[in-house]
Design brief:
Layout: H1 24-38, H2 48-51, H3 70-75, H4 79-84, H5 103-106, H6 109-117, H7 122-146, H8 167-172, H9 207-234, H10 248-255, H11 259-274, H12 289-318, H13 321-348, H14 387-397, H15 421-424
């Protein structure tokens, strides 16, 4: 009878005794299991076809053995190479790769608990609701676009309610006009189309009205003369005439001004350069480390005091709410006054032409007649001005046309001359 080894009792709570445990039987069992897995599983689970084979070939006694050729021996693989080839009966192992960790597991513990419960912050909850609403609105819009249009009215009727009609159909068929801007019917200027002249412009005016018209025309002419004199003072009068024109002596005198002073300055600079004005720093004037440190401390102290002062002013502003409110009221009052002034200015220039281009609108001369030019009857009266020019000026004044200037310059191009190739040899 074979000797059975008695198992040695060893305390396993110490690491040094772990290797003394006999695990050969466990390893043999695991090796058998691995062999069964490599050969297609345990024999008890295998079908009969894989375990038993029906012999359909004659036995070796009755079978003639054919001599093997040299090529057949060469094609036979060695057992060491056959062991390396994969067994077709063993299924390949399924190994999971690129497994993504759930994003919730990466979160911190409090956040994970909130997500598990389904808690959402108010901002995220509002964003989720807005997203759902936008999705529903988009779906309704697409359904409206893709759904076939069904007419609920007779297309051939003349009178339709524009609100019930399709917008595109109403615009194309002119059933509904496009929305016009608010300033469409607003006039660019408040100047009337036809200005009524004063009583002094009549063919038979009263004495006072005619004198008032002459006075107005005189003021306009004086204003023009004043402006013309101002331009002459700034241009023509600034330059001397032929009598007072500069000569060679005056030019020489003007160019030699200040030369003596310049020579004195040069001499003084030479003296300063010889006397070393930038003297070197002496030893008792140098800043020692202690002095520099004191200056830095004083600078820090000043900065601290300045900061404390600013903080104190900020704290003090809390207790001056009344004065701040008063300042705000004054500011609003000033803004209201500026608004009123602006409105008054707009009302003042309401009847005056605006600047539409580079040329400013100039009021034309008044159409009038002097006292001695007035006639007693309409037959002998000579009309002043032109009706066509008056309408053109009215368009400019009412900001319908921009002011223009008559262009009298005619551009003359230089005449091109060239020699014809066919006549060159003849000449």
């Amino acid at each position: 009878m074979a000797d059975v080894k008695k198992k040695q009792k060893v305390s396993k709570n110490k690491k040094k005794n772990w290797r003394k445990v006999d695990i050969t039987d466990v390893e043999e069992h695991l090796e058998e299991k691995r062999l069964e897995e490599r050969t297609g599983g345990p024999a008890a689970e295998k079908p009969d076809k894989s375990l038993f084979v029906v012999d359909t070939v004659a036995s070796a006694e009755h079978q003639e053995v054919a001599p093997k050729s040299v090529k057949s021996y060469k094609n036979i693989k060695l057992q060491c190479f056959q062991n390396l080839e994969p067994d077709p009966r063993i299924q390949p192992a399924k190994i999971k790769r690129n497994v993504r960790i759930d994003s919730i597991k990466k979160k911190a513990l409090p956040v994970r608990k909130q997500l598990e419960v389904g808690y959402l912050r108010p901002a995220k909850r509002q964003a989720e609701q807005q997203r759902k609403k936008a999705k529903v609105a988009k779906k309704e819009k697409m359904e409206k676009i893709l759904s076939p249009v069904v007419a609920t009215y007779n297309l051939w009727e003349e009178d339709h309610n524009c609100e019930e009609l399709d917008e595109h159909y109403a615009l194309v068929t002119k059933k509904k006009l496009p929305s016009a801007p608010s300033h469409l019917k607003q006039r660019p200027s408040e100047v009337p189309a036809v200005e009524v002249p004063t009583g002094g412009a009549s063919y038979n005016p009263s004495y006072d009205e005619h004198q008032q018209l002459l006075r107005t025309a005189t003021h306009r002419e004086l204003r023009k003369l004043k402006q013309q004199r101002k331009i002459e003072r700034a241009t023509t009068d600034m330059f001397p005439d032929r009598r007072n024109a500069p000569t060679e002596q005056t030019w020489l005198h003007e160019m030699s001004e200040g030369l003596a002073l310049a020579d004195e300055d040069v001499e003084q600079e030479d003296v300063i350069a010889d006397g070393f004005p930038n003297a070197p720093v002496r030893a008792h004037e140098r800043k020692v480390r202690q002095k520099r440190r004191r200056e830095q401390q004083e600078k820090r102290l000043l900065d601290k005091i300045k900061k404390q002062k600013v903080d104190k002013q900020r704290m003090g502003e809390i207790y001056r709410l009344r004065s701040i409110r008063k300042e705000i009221d004054e500011h609003e009052k000033c803004a209201e006054e500026r608004k009123q002034l602006k409105l008054e200015k707009l009302a003042k220039y309401k009847n005056k032409p605006k600047r539409l281009g580079s040329i400013k609108y100039v009021e034309p001369d008044l159409e009038l007649k002097l006292s001695e030019e007035l006639s007693e009857s309409l037959r002998t009266l000579k009309p002043e001005g032109s009706l066509l020019e008056d309408r053109f000026r009215s368009f400019q004044k009412r900001c319908i046309l921009e002011p223009r200037r008559r262009q009298n310059i005619v551009k003359k191009y230089k005449r091109k001359t060239y020699e014809n190739k066919t006549h060159r040899e003849v000449v």
